[in-house]
Amino acid sequence: MNSVIIFTSLLVMLLSVKHGLLISQHPKLLVISYDAFRYDYFDRTPFMNKLKHEGTYADYMMNIFVTKTFPNHHTMATGLYAETHGVVDNEFYDPASGNTTKYSYNLYHYNNRILPIWTVNQKAGAQRRSGTMMWPGGIYEYQGISPTFAQNFNETVPWEERIDTLISWFVHPIHPINFGILYIEEPDYHGHVIGIKGPQFDDILRKLDNITRYLHNKIEYHGLHDLNVVHLSDHGMATVKLDRIIDLTKYINSSDYKFVGTSPGLHIFPNPGKEEIIYQTLKQAALKSKTFRVFKRDEIPKKYHYGNNTRIGPIFVIAEIGYAFQNLLDNIEYYKKKFNITVTSDSEFGLHGYDNEAIEMHPFFFANGPAFMPKCKLEPFNNLDLFPLFCKILDLQCPIGNGTISHLTKCLKKHQQDITVIAYRLIFVATIISMTLVVIIGAIIIFYMRKRRLGAKSYRRILEDLEAQYHWDENHDIENDTCKLNNFPDLFVISCYAKNRLSYAYKGNIKYRKTLFHCR
């Protein structure tokens, strides 16, 4: 019975391995974004710093204009500039309807032909599946296609739970994903409130370091050694103090326009007939103060790839690094209530959204896994290049975007996909052979055990018949009685098997209970 149980368990285990190999044949990639994690924070995150230098990395990454969360996350997902994918800010205003669109399906569907990487992967079929964990725009359908698994943003869900859920998607017994994407809202969330220099902010970075260690421990625990992991951020962060807040109402009447967006970049929609006077007034104020810049939509510098989109306001103002507009004061009032902070003239607040050429806005990048060369340093590159990089790792035919992969290939292992496919095939063949051997060995064991049980039963039965017929016991004369055994040629003694199943010959001794019978 024990042998049967062992054999059955082994068979089930091997069948599970076979099943896992069959459904995990595609390259696997996990992307994790840490909102507003600046490129130079690594001296405060020892585990992440070690992980960075063990893999493929760059000193920093360059992002798109404007350096805000939703535009840059969608650029990383599509490989397109904001003016092309349409997520030009965290919100936009439609003058025709008078509606301001915030985080929603419409924000991410300026052009329905544009697909994010998780949809491209899902659309490729052949058991390719994607999972999006709180990534901006990740819960929506694109061309009617949803990711296999998707979780909307919920700040109350602990980071550990997010990671556990995401990893469970990779090892799902029926619908495992080969691409997962994860968003963590720190250090942005607290950086806005407490600034980026104090011990409280250091604690946030320490927690991020710990959760990164937790992630990699989980990857190791589940044996996901073929999982490529890309760590990155969307933008950096700069510091603003109260004495550097610009009040635009000192220059223009607030009743003459409407604005959308948040500091340091605002979209201004003048009332009919007020556009030119507002523009000229702000232009003069900007030249005089040198604390902000102002552009008409069609005058936004081409290098920003930002002005060619109707979601941009007719006038766009952007503060210089370290400055903000008056709407930041509304945010500060919210911070005071939400986080119970005391604000003084020395208080510092974190802010992003500035010119993407400012070093303070630069995010980070590093990656580990079978597709990446260890200890390989890249020159700083654009986050537009991430989309073709993801496609390369996932072995996908992707739409042409604004990025390129040519300068990243030096840190990619050669023919990684071919090696992976060959390895899977070899493992699969080896598994089939192993299963066949186990089945054969198991059948032999079962046959042997059944024969042994039958032999033992026959042996006991014959001895009982002998005892009943001749009444042998310890008092009989052994020498006179043992010859009678010759009258039982069918005596079945498993250790003395001589001929075949129908005819047995006994030679030697039989010990029954305490009596030894000898047959000449």
Automatic annotation (TrEMBL):
SUPFAM superfamilies: Alkaline phosphatase-like (SSF53649). The chain crosses the membrane at residues 422-448. It comes from the Eukaryota. Residues 1-20 form the signal peptide. Keywords: Membrane, Signal, Transmembrane, Transmembrane helix. This is Bis(5'-adenosyl)-triphosphatase enpp4 isoform X2. It holds the Pfam family Phosphodiest. GO terms for molecular function: hydrolase activity. InterPro entries: Alkaline_phosphatase_core_sf (IPR017850), Phosphodiest/P_Trfase (IPR002591). The keyword Transmembrane applies. The lineage of its organism: Eukaryota, Metazoa, Ecdysozoa, Arthropoda, Hexapoda.
